[in-house]
Amino acid sequence: MFGLRAFALAFSILALGAPLRAEEAIEEMANKDVKLGDKVAPRDEKAVWNKKYDRKMFLFGKKPNVFFASQLDKLTPGKLLLPAEGEGRNAVYAAKQKWKVDAFDVSDVAKDKALKFAEEEKVAINYFVSDASIVDLKPNDYDAVAVIFFQPQDNEATSKFFTKLKNSVKPGGSIIVEGFAKSHLKLKTRFGPKDLSCMYDKKFLKGNFKDWKISLIKERKTVLDEGMHDGKAIVIDFVAEKPNEK
Ligand SMILES: C[S@@+](CC[C@H](N)C(=O)[O-])C[C@H]1O[C@@H](n2cnc3c(N)ncnc32)[C@H](O)[C@@H]1O
Predict the structure, then answer these.
(1) CB 169 within 8 A of CB 140
(2) Best substitution site from 49, 113, 184 to test ligand 1's pocket, by max atoms within 8 Å of Cβ?
(3) What spacing in Å lies between the alpha carbon of 105 and ligand 1's midpoint?
(4) In whole angstroms, what is the distance from residue 92 CA to residue 29 CA?
(5) Is the dihedral of CA 180, 164, 137, 135 positive or negative?
(6) pLDDT higher for 57 or 21?
(7) Which residue among 59, 113, 135, 246 is least crowded, i.e. fewest CB within 10 A of its CB?
(8) Higher pLDDT, 2 or 128
């Protein structure tokens, strides 16, 4: 009897528990010596994320982010940009909904996984490797841009990045953002940034989109269930539209 139970426990750890624990260890390694609220020294994002993504499992799962999918479904398919797209979960979903998808990320390992995933799912996506701080985007090119859980090293860098994204959206086009709120830090989760200076609050987002029509801005408590994002979180959901030219 005991033998059977021990076998079942060992099996469940191997089948379910072990991969998650490995991911937690990786996350802890990446955040080593970082205390909550610390101003974090610049990291080599490419090296950090390539190491995290260098495994068979999908760190954030294969299903799209729930908020992203719910907002995208309200729009007419056109041309979409997904910055810092990781392993392609949102890109593949969008392509299946008939969007023409451009995606990029600093991690080439993520790019390879995303392209293989898209091929398996029989959809086409255009995916390139670039750091967000130097990405080159055409003006007035996209019907929508979606920034899902990507927060550059601090709010100043994020504002510069948003300016570039705003310029790349066509008049009448949309931006969709979901990211961690400043208040998320108090939850002391294993996942998510640990540095207050890169977190969002409503004032920050409103300030960056003063000249756009903000159709949704909401800070909310939630329970995330997307791979490493696994548990209680406080996020900000945001949607805004670029004014049509007069
Ligand atoms: C939390 S993951 C989110 C991935 C994806 N957006 C998703 O929701 O599944 C953050 C992503 O940002 C990417 N990233 C980090 N720093 C970057 C940078 N400076 N430029 C471009 N991508 C970056 C990472 O490689 C990683 O894929």
Answers:
(1) yes
(2) 49
(3) 6
(4) 29
(5) negative
(6) 57
(7) 246
(8) 128
User: Would you say how long the chain is, in residues?
Assistant: 246
Report which DSSP code applies to 130. Answer: -
Same domain, yes or no: 148 and 161: yes
| Strand 229-241 with 213-226, pairing | antiparallel
Q: What percent of the chain has pLDDT over 70?
A: 83
* Whether residue 71 has its Cβ less than 6 Å from ligand 1: no
The residue whose two tokens read 């479904």 is 73
Amino acid at the residue 159: S
Higher pLDDT, 173 or 37: 173
Amino acid at 95: A
Q: What tens digit of pLDDT does each residue of 114-173 get?
A: 999 999 999 999 999 999 999 999 999 999 999 999 999 899 999 999 999 999 999 999
If asked whether residues 116 and 23 sit together in one domain, one would say no
pLDDT of residue 51: 96
List the structure tokens of 217. Answer: 């801005």
Ligand 1 probe mutation, 136, 150, 176, most atoms within 8 A of CB: 150
In a domain, 224, yes or no: yes
pTM of this structure: 0.87
- Cα separation of 138 and 207, whole Å? 24
Residue 165 tokens, joined: 């994204």
Residue 17 structural domain: 1-30
Q: The CATH number of the domain where 175 resides is what?
A: 3.40.50.150
Q: How far is the CA of 39 from the centre of ligand 1 (A)?
A: 19
